[in-house]
User: Fold these one by one.
Assistant:
Number 1:
Amino acid sequence: MHEAVAAEIDCDVRVALAFLIGFLVLVLLNTVGVFNWISGLAGFDVGSGLGSLSGWTMLGALAGVGLSTNLGLIRKTGIKPLFVGIAVTASVAVASLLLIDLLGPAST
C-alpha cells in the first residue's frame, strides 16, 4: 500500500514539475517577444488566442474538480475546512487589495 501511495506522490511531483517548467518557458518566450513575432508571421494575435485557450483550460479544470467532488465526504469532514478555505480566500483578497492600493495597479 505504501508503495502505491509513494508512486502516486511521485507522479504528482512530476506533473507539477512539468507544469512549472512549461509555465516558465512560456513566460520566457513571452518576455523575449516570441509570441509577438509569431503573431506578425501568422497574421493574428497569438497572445490573445493563448489567453483564450488558458481561460477554457481553467474552466475545464474547475469543472473536473467540481464533478469529482464527493459531497458525502465533505459532509463527513465537517464545516471547519470550509471556514478555513473561506478565511484563506479572504486573506488573499485583502492582501491583493492592499498591495494594489500601496503599489498602484499594474501598467499595461
Number 2:
Amino acid sequence: MPPVPRSPPHPIGRRARFGYICSHGDLPRLYQNTAGTDTPPHEHTAVEEVCYCLSGELTCEVEGEPSAVLRPGQKMRFAAGRDHRLSNPGQSPCQFLLIHGVGRFDFVPSR
C-alpha cells in the first residue's frame, strides 16, 4: 500500500499538531492528533458530523451530554447545531475520520 500523503495542518486545532493527514476531495478527512491536543468547542450549523476512531483514544464532548472516549472501531455522531469538542488527553497519538453530511459546511466557535 502506498504511503498516505500528508496535507498541511487544519486551521481548527487550538494546539500544535492537530491536523488532517489526507483528504480525497472535500470529506471525509483523516485526522491525527498528538497527545494533549484538542479542538475548541464549536458547532456546524447545517450539517451533522460523524467521528470514527481508527487508532488511539479520542475524547468527545457534546453539549448537554456526558463525555465519551472513542477507541478504535467506535464512532460518535454530532448533530448540526450542537456544540462539540474533540481532544486527546492521553499519551499516544490518535487517528480518526471525520465525515460530514451533505450541505454547507461551516465551523462556528462556541461563545
